[in-house]
Amino acid sequence: MGQCCSKGVSGDNGGSVVAVGDGNSAVSTNNRPKPPPSPVRQSVGNGMSYTNNSTPAHSFTASPFQSPYPAGIAPSPSPVGTPRRKFKWPFPPPSPAKPILSAIFKRQGGTSVKPKEGPIPEDEGGEGEGQLDKSFGYPKNLTSKYELGKEVGRGHFGHTCWAKGKKGELKNQPVAVKIISKAKAVDGMNVVWQMTTAISIEDVRREVKILKALSGHQNLVKFYDAFEDANNVYIVMELCEGGELLDRILSRGGRYTEEDAKSIVVQILNVVAFCHLQGVVHRDLKPENFLFAKKDEDSPMKVIDFGLSDFIKPDQRLNDIVGSAYYVAPEVLHRSYSIEADMWSIGVITYILLCGSRPFWARTESGIFRSVLRADPNFEDSPWPAVSAEARDFVKRLLNKDHRKRMTASQALTHPWLRTENPFIPLDILIFKLVKTYIRTSPLKRAALKALSKALTEEELIYLKAQFNLLEPKAGSVSLDNFRMVGGLTALMKQTTDAMREARVLDIINLLEPLSYKQMEFEEFCAAAISTYQLEALENWEHIASAAFNCFEQEGNRVISVEELAQEMNLGPTAYAFLKDWIRPSDRKLSFLGYTKFLHGVTMRSSSTRHHR
């Protein structure tokens, strides 16, 4: 599990990628960050990483976790130098750090913004530890099924041990057991984890639920079982022996070649696209949370650590602040986000892979958050001039501060930079959301979108063709049956897991009912499935918009009053003043400005924002 609600928010980044400050500010006067230092491995990462590498006996001390093993099992030693977990006092407002760190500390069971310097007495608890039910209902017979061995990894909320199956399908097979203490865990003079709030208990419960619900993807760590006793929760998973992605980056001198980076990014996108389709947002993607199955150079990579992950409905917005400081998306800090936050994190990872340094850097939590919110990544200094234009465009389209303009994981797999990898293009839940909106919109808006779709180039159509074909059209068209029934199963059910049912992703099918009596050919499908915001992020957006408006002038533009336009957009009389600028005085039709604004519509605060935690 992790922090920013934990992972990586502390001054040492709380993990394996640690800033080495030189006293210089991370943000220059031209709003562009100075080149940050390359990622450096300091001590032991807080990602729940684990390898099968042995550690010299002299480098161990007693584990800081109370009773980490069942009776009869010797405690594992813990590596010296495990990073201390301490949040620094934030800068004064308007820094976003103070409310963010306050939320983080509260989530961990604290009662103030600034943590105490010494260990917290055992009888203290954010919500009355003695009154909390820490029983998870998991089996209590861990030692009858697994033989625990040495510690192989350490995270903020627990540590991981090597183990071996005693019976059944996993007999004599090595596995990893993640051990999460039910009590306060102290490292030196600092409390690094305490299951003293309902939130922290629910985090553990949800992690197991997500791991159990997600299954069947080659880039997803396998979940085997969960156990508990009076002191700990034990999560049994696949043992990944190849080490962290971060270690591979460092072993290559801090960066990957473009060709090698493509292979890594495709694997990340594939598994994230799978999670998003299932209605799961990871919320803590970073190099430490990707492990290689084996030490081989071409070994597949696995995403781990779903401690901060959550189920999410297609139109839902989350508001709890979680993640790792260097990888957290701007909208997370603004407390309104969805699966696009994961795409930002992938953009940061790709940036690091290609140049060996972070796009947003500072010596403090406050500075990191400021940089994420205000600074622009540096694409001018070495080695970026030698990096291909396609790679730079790929990263820029993921590190767009407007989450509506970011590519989805499925879209990113069709980007020109990755096309030579011939990746499989998975079904995109965004298609269902956009089509749902399209079939409920006005005839004028549909005409505007149809004109826009006719202006798309072959480059932009590749993704749409892939999605259209995944729906298995009949005679060149799709209907509700194609969204609902493909080869005897729904297009979504073909790839469903328990996670999709938990997140109620399939409910979106019911919202496509207007398609019951309609056939949608590819041309109209393109109009229904395009995102104006994403097109606006393209370098050739002005050309596309101009061509689309010319088409709209011929086929869809008509005389419209300010009052009618306001009604089209569900706006009141207060909007009349600015809507006048959208209509040409000469013929009372939409102007080019009005057309592009009309395509975007008006952004309203979602009523589905979830207020929890």
Structure in a nutshell:
ATP binds at residue 178. The chain has helices at residues 97-107, 142-145, 198-213, 245-251, 258-277, 330-333, 340-355, 365-374, 389-398, 409-412, 429-438, 443-454, 458-470, 480-484, 498-502, 507-510, 522-529, 532-536, 541-555, 562-568, 576-579, 592-600; strands at residues 60-62, 77-79, 146-155, 158-165, 174-181, 185-187, 190-193, 223-228, 232-238, 280-281, 290-292, 301-303, 310-311, 477-478, 520-521. By secondary structure, the chain is an alpha+beta fold.
What gyration radius follows from the Cα positions, in whole Å?
Answer: 26 Å
Number of domains: 4
Strand fraction: 5-15%
Mean pLDDT: 79
Which fold name corresponds to the CATH topology of the largest domain? Phosphorylase Kinase, domain 1
Q: Largest beta sheet, briefly?
A: 5 strands, antiparallel
Got a strand count?
A: 15
* Class by SSE composition: alpha+beta
CATH homologous superfamily identity of the largest domain? Phosphorylase Kinase, domain 1
Oligomerization state of this entry?
single chain
Q: Write down the CATH class of the largest domain.
A: Alpha Beta
Neighbour order of strands in the largest sheet: 3-4-5-9-8
